[in-house]
Amino acid sequence: MKIVIKPEVGWKKVVFKIPDNQFGKIKKLGGKYGFRIDKLLRIILIGGFIDYQDNSNFQDLEREIESLERKLYELEGKWSPLKFRTYYLAMDDQNLAIQISGLIAENKRLRKILGKPERDYSKIEELIHYYMGFDSRE
Amino acid sequence: MEIELRVSQEEFKQIKQNKKEIEKRFYRLDELENTLKALKLRYLSKHRDRLKKKLDEMEHNYEDLLNFEKRAMDDKEFLLKIRHQLSKENYELRQQLEVNSYENRDKT
Q1: What Rg do the C-alpha atoms of chain A give, in angstroms?
Q2: What ipTM is given for this predicted complex?
Q3: Does A82 contact chain B (CB < 8 Å)?
Q4: Is pLDDT above 60 for A136?
Q5: Packing angle between helix A59-113 and helix B29-107, nearest 10 degrees?
Q6: How many other C-beta atoms can be found within 10 angstroms of the C-beta atom of residue A120?
Q7: Where do the domains of chain B lie?
Q8: SS3 of A136, please?
Q9: What is the pLDDT of residue A96?
Q10: Please, how many CA atoms are within 13 Å of residue A26, restricted to the half-sphere of its CB?
Q11: pTM of the predicted protein model
């Protein structure tokens, strides 16, 4: 196998000639650990080797990742319907807030004409303010 | 067969300088395997940590949304009650206003 290394710009090159059977062994190792051939070559050419002493296998880690991914998918599956439900619920509350706002204005006016004391709307107005400010993009 | 690989100017310079040493690396398969193991382990650990972080965030957001749903349901119930009360009261006040205006007209 002929491996030709070229810079991004320019005509220069460096050539490595590796016997096919040796290159086959390298490719096989790459496949075992999930590395593409270009990545493998970059490790050999640029990265250099790492002194690795840990004998732990990857299976525990892969199992943990699989379990985390499963949990994420499950949660994503529950997330969309919940977001949909709460959005329409908040919209219902916003509509109610608009209607009540009109009713409060009418109530204040009628009470004033009839000489009755004003009611305390502070709690309701706080809620109206909250839902009127609800942003549908949230 | 031939494989061509493009590298940066700096990397090319390094490869050219260390050609003899690099050539030997193609035959040091044990060291290559150790390196691939280490890199894979590093990748898997980082991936695991990213997933954990994402899951934590999503669980937190999901919990917030559940709380908001509960709050919005309670508020809806309260707002429906208030709308009913106010509609009823306004109706009664309008009736009263009508009676008052009849009485005032009779007096005049």
Answers
A1: 34
A2: 0.72
A3: yes
A4: no
A5: 10
A6: 8
A7: 23-107
A8: coil
A9: 96
A10: 23
A11: 0.72
Q: Which residues pair with A2 in a beta bridge?
A: A17, B2
Contacts with B, A 11-40, CB within 8 Å:
12, 14, 16, 18, 20, 22-23, 25-26, 29-30, 32-35, 37-38, 40
Tell me the per-residue pLDDT of A54-87, one tens digit each, with 9 for 90 and over.
666 788 899 999 999 999 999 999 999 999 999 9
Q: For residues A111 and A81, what is the distance between their CA atoms, to the nearest angstrom?
A: 44
Q: H or E stretch including B19?
A: helix B19-25
Interface contacts A/B by beta carbons within 8 Å: 206
* Distance from C-alpha of B82 to C-alpha of B71, rounded to nearest angstrom: 16
What does the alpha-carbon distance between residue B11 and residue B4 come to, in Å, rounded to a whole number?
A: 15
Domain assignments of chain A as residue spans, ordered by start: 2-47, 59-132
- Shortest distance, CA B77 to any CA of chain A (angstroms): 9
Average pLDDT over residues A40-45: 92
